[in-house]
Amino acid sequence: MEVANQALLERTKKTRSVTRSIVTKQTNKLESEINNSVDKTIVYELYMQLISKFEELVKLDKEIEGLIDIDSLEDEILTREEYRDKFIIWKTRAERYIESVSSIAIRNSAETQLQNVTLPLNSSVSSVSTNQPRLPKLTLESFLGKDIGSFPSFWARFKSAVHENSSLNHVDKFSYLKSVVTSDADLAIRGLTLTSENYAKAVKILEDRFGRQELIVDYHMNNLLNLTPVRKSFDVIALRNLYEQLEVNIRGLESLGISPDSYSCLLFPIIMKAIPPDLPLEYNRKHDKKQSQITDLMEYLRDEVQSRERTKALVKPYESQIKGCHPYSNKYFERETQQKVHSRFPPSNHNKSSVRASANELLTAAYSNCLFCKENTHLSDLCENLSVQQKRDKLIKERRCFICCNSSCYVKKCKKSGCSFCQGRHARAICFKLENSKKQNSHLDSGEKPVDFKTTSSNSVMNNRGGVLLQCVKAEIIGSSSSDKIFCLFDNGSEKSFVKKNVSRRLGLKKLGLERLNIYSFGSKTPKKQTCRKVEVRLRNVLSGEETVSETVEIEEISRATLSLPNQDAWREMESKEFRLTFSSSESSESCEISLLIGSDFYWSLTNRIKRFDSSLVAAETSLGWSLQGREGIVERTSCDSLSNSQGFYLPHHAVIRSDKTTSRLRIVFDGSAHEDGHLSLNQSLYTGPNLHPNIFELLLRFRENPVAFTAVVKSAFLQIELDFPDRDFTRFFWTDNLNNEPYVLNFTRVLFGLRPSPHLLAATLKHHFKKYKEQYPHTFDLLNSSVYADDLIGGRNDVPDALRTTLECLQIFSDAGMLLRKWRSNSKQLNLFWQQEGVETEFSETSAIDLRPPIKVLGLAWDSERDLIYFDPKDLLKFLSRKIESKRFILSVVGRIFDPIGIGPFVIKLKCLLQDLWTLGLGTSSKATPQVAAVE
PANTHER family annotated for this entry (predicted)? Predict the structure, then answer.
């Protein structure tokens, strides 16, 4: 069998070699005729011959690709694409030449025979009277045949410009028609030679194939029946798209003589279900006394969309800060997003934050559009809508790797593992052996009754890191034999509600039946088919006694991880606001085991009020009691009975006011170097760690190399890194909200600025996240790896587009790390404008007065971004010098206030010489300077 295939492959390759030679000769002839001939007939004949031969070449390429091995496929595709590119180039040149020659002939004929006659203004090939202004040439849009609804508008334009143009003969009209129909439309009339009789046949074929009224009506009605719902009224873009879809299809039906009133009974509820839930309520309030029509509803939607668009234009552009994958929808980022989504592997932790808030978040991220059939109901690995051969053809057409399915990778260089079924060097989705195995199994099982499986996700993403709270309550579960108090987790990311099997059997919960599920557990790529018992669960609020009944599915394990409960500070705060939690203060800060997961099927029927405490912590009232969800603060209250008996460290702190800052001008500074006599300070007891920061001088030089420079700051960078529980006792400090009350003890839950290991911890954390994007964004990785100093990003690029792309990629990388890059500044006004359009938070608004802005600092040096100058700002120094204290300590303070990264500044050199003189004279720290030294000052 292999010998026969090899012989067939050799014969096909020889045939293709001859065909390629003919195509090359035809291309050379075509080039010669275009350059030397004015007879469009010869050019057109060569053009048609070239198309015919290239079609033969395409068929031969497909046959060869099905016969060769995977290792040779890459070279085969590259060679094929070279011929394809050459063909497209000369096909386009020939079409332009034929069109230009035809236009000249038509224009001359029209000008000599039709003097003083005004032709239709929308004609793309006719000329106008010499008394009329010469309008720009109109270009006819092509018709693919994919979108039947666009045929009426296409034919109206073609009919006006070409079909009814009396100056054109039928052969020329047919030429124009063939040049503007492609894909399915071109296939419909392919084979008709270029004659006058065939033009009428081609028109008739296209009208019968794409112009039948019943087909167009069905097309518009299907679009109306399959509208994409919009669930959030603040999503203005989605609302506008929905409104435009409605308008386009309603107008399309009206153009066919079908009034909206004739199908309003069907369309009205469809629209009501497609728009956000709050809009139907508002509409019914305004139209409660009259019979509503589709026109009334469309006017209401139009007004709502326009009002929201005006409101959005007035508010600050950057209200939605970085919250997830790809928050900035720009043309640069979309390409990277598409490459990232269309992978055979589900998204992994290297592209997401390590902490997830929902059980179904990973599943939702993985369920992006399938690479092969574009549906969003399954992974690409599990697609059964296309055959393996069709999948392979699609990968070849889109130039994707046969192993990882990414467009930026090749088989020879791909490092991903191959097929898990046959261990071959290809993706599992395109495995012929797996397909044959499924067919055999299907044949064997054909006598069995098919089972309807439901697909669901089964468990939440939980961790026992202290910082993030999930929505959890303690409730009493009542069974037929006994009752018990359990912890329940609310998770609207899970499609079903689940109860642990041992709890259900122990309490004797009422059985309602069996249900078969496809359960996608966290991180799995394939579902686990499982038959589960469906039971009735009766829950009682442990505080109010209110009971609820729901249906849940038994499962062996919800999660092996334990869930952290809110600490005692949060418990006390909830109690003070009369939002009582369902567990006692003694249970606070402890871990609990989840016995019941309440999914989306009962989530909102049990959830009532929502109360937001701050930007990251929310309280939700449920029928089972109040719960807390979100991220806890950066400090927490700690109990300490005696200072002498407890192990830890108490940090002194004081306020520092910085008038040169645009945010946080009043800051609390903690002193980790303070200590008693004869004792070590906290900083002396800590390991500093290696220096991972770049050299400041080299960083400043790189900053000045690029024409487009930019800087940014990481918001609260140190406070994004969590402290382990045993280390928190060494970050205690005293605090009070009221000076009349006794102070209480707080400790940090995050790394704080001022401790010796903090810079190393921050740099190591950032580099860890940067490495995840080394392959995806190599240029941005190099920039971040060498241009981030502590929480400052100092970089640049050669042009504005590259700078914009880099900044958006930086925002994405930091967003996935759970950090926010803000206070962007640049010396390019164009880049600043692009940032505003993308909603990037800049240092200053464009309307703020330049004179009132504090100087921008780049690693301690003042930077005038308007003139792109680095300068020394003497204001603070002159203010300090006005004190005129002639002592050694004062002079040392003056020198310390001047930041010179190079160390050889002229003014600094003079001060260093002065310090040497002071040391030579042997003056004490508080001693008054000699007259000679004072004179130098």
Answer: GAG-LIKE PROTEIN, PHD-TYPE DOMAIN-CONTAINING PROTEIN
